[in-house]
Amino acid sequence: MDGDKKDVVRKRGRPKLVDDAARRQSILRAAHEAFVELGFSRTTTALVAARARVSKRDIYSLFATKTELFAAVVTEHRHLILDLPRPEGEDLPPLETLVRIFRLDIDEAAEFEREAILSLIVRESVQYPELSDYLYENEIIRSREELIDWLKAETLKGRMVIDDAMVCAGMLMDIVFGALLPRRRLRHRVDRRQRIEHIRKRLEIFLRGIR
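User: That's the sequence. What structure does it adopt?
Assistant: Structure tokens below.
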């Protein structure tokens, strides 16, 4: 009988966990939309709560500050920026690995999401340096560091010849993100496809230069 009661208690507890997870995702979706649309300063917890159909108390039970909420939104989407670390035992040509690392193989819908999160991070970091500091100090953004680690590992494996991983990581990020953040938004599929091809060619030039 006691065992049956414990099972009942456990079963009753599961919906609460599901509800909390669903509520968190709803808040993050609403916050992401608001931050992209309105920016950090004009986005309020009251607005996010209204869009997510939750209370402000629900938000503060998960995120102590608006900065923490912003960081959680970035964390939720950072897989669209860089795919590191790589899987153990991966054995692809360097160019194809870089294509996957920089997510140049994602579909069009994911591309729009990536543009939105990249633009958001860049725009708000310029306006609010303390926000950028928070993201880096709390290791929300570690793209450069992770890329440096990968380059060093590839050098140790003999797959690349790199004297300064820090410089090369900076070059690679400039090559890719400099192109992914154009001054005008590319709305046509053919233009977006051409941009990816141009990035691939630049990566090929980089790889030829380190042989």
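The chain has a mean pLDDT of 89.
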